[in-house]
Design goal:
Elements: H1 2-30, H2 38-58, H3 68-96, H4 101-127, E1 134-135, H5 137-143, H6 154-161, H7 165-183, H8 185-195, H9 197-202, H10 207-233, E2 237-238, H11 246-256, H12 261-276, H13 288-292, H14 294-309
Antiparallel strand pairs: 1-2
Helix pairs in contact: 1-6, 1-7, 1-10, 1-11, 1-12, 2-3, 2-4, 2-10, 2-11, 3-4, 3-10, 5-10, 7-8, 7-10, 7-12, 11-12, 11-14
Length: 329
């Protein structure tokens, strides 16, 4: 029982960055933009938050004097700013200039990874650390503050209360996005743009503005996943290339969740568990890469199943990945 609770707890923590990334990508894809730059945006969001936290901690004469509100809000704001800039780069190239979305997204992922590693290496040199990492323990402690009762309510506290606020925010955002897409007029307009931008344009919906806003919101959400990984999951320690393939797992989760943010909550926990299951299988450490393939294999199976059944509600937006030319309407 103890092992099961520990496994589920770790699976949830592992899945939260995936939930942020997949929710952000779902919002983006519902507008018709296929943003394969999500892994890079998560890097940019995480590193932007690290820069904010680093500057704040450096401004303190004594870490004991740290203000909880400032320690949280500064990294959050810098994370949002970095993610927004990345989203505008993608939107300008794909929406305004109508560049190929696949190529632009992959280029953004490469740029984002390089951005994180460059500034991460620079901060490591500034700190003069003996190990290739940046530790922001003071700031991280505020992000990792758990709910009351986390340590005194046994398995219930371990499983439901023992997380920082960003973990609960990820679930709230996913539920809010599901409500927005399915129950609001603005959500209907967003889905209309992703399904048939020409028809949406004829109905008076500003297609270009909708794509810009959806990509910006989706990128900010994905960027928060990078911030969560550094400040909460990694205890405030930034290491270059530390994200691994989590950004790509987030994109795979979009397909697994059939473009439904609510289903993405359960999917993120499942993916998080599958990603670390090798730690709980005797003798699996030597073949851990094979176990890490399982989420991708499951995604392929879901994609095949969805394609065979051909249910419209389980398909991606019809105009996904296609540039819109108003003159061709």
């Amino acid at each position: 029982m103890t092992t099961l609770i520990a496994f589920l707890h770790r699976a949830i923590m592992q899945g939260i960055p995936l939930l942020y990334g997949s929710t952000g990508e779902i919002i983006t894809e519902k507008s018709g933009n296929l943003n394969l730059g999500i892994p890079g945006i998560m890097y940019i969001g995480g590193m932007s938050g690290v820069i904010g936290a680093f500057l704040y901690e450096k401004s303190l004469t004594d870490n004991a004097d740290a203000n909880g509100f400032l320690a949280v809000i500064i990294p959050l704001l810098t994370c949002v700013l970095g993610s927004l800039i990345a989203s505008f780069i993608y939107s300008f190239l794909t929406v305004t200039l109508r560049a190929n979305q696949n190529v632009t997204g992959l280029a953004l992922t490469t740029f984002g990874t390089g951005f994180g590693n460059f500034f991460g290496g620079s901060l490591i040199k500034l700190t003069g650390a003996d190990v290739p990492s940046v530790a922001l323990t003071t700031t991280s402690n505020f992000f990792r503050t758990t709910l009351p009762g986390a340590d005194s309510t046994g398995w219930f506290g371990k499983l439901f209360l023992n997380y920082g606020f960003l973990a609960y925010l990820a679930i709230i955002i996913a539920i809010a996005c599901a409500f927005f897409l399915n129950k609001t007029r603005a959500g209907l307009h967003l889905r209309a743009v992703g399904e048939n931008p020409a028809t949406a344009d004829a109905a008076g919906i500003n297609v270009e503005r909708t794509k810009y806003i959806a990509t910006a919101v989706g990128s900010v959400i994905a960027g928060l996943g990078g911030l969560y990984y550094v400040m909460d999951y990694a205890n405030g320690v930034w290491s270059n290339d530390g994200f691994g393939d989590r950004g790509w797992l987030a994109i795979a989760l979009v397909i697994f969740a059939v473009w439904k943010p609510g289903l993405g909550i359960l999917g993120s926990i499942a993916f998080g568990g599958l990603y670390i299951i090798y730690l709980y299988v005797p003798g699996a450490l030597r073949t851990q890469e094979l176990y890490k393939m399982i989420p991708y294999i499951v995604t392929i199976l879901v994609l095949v199943l969805v394609s065979i059944r051909k249910k419209k509600e389980n398909q991606g937006p019809a105009a996904l990945g296609l540039s819109y030319f108003r003159e061709e309407r």
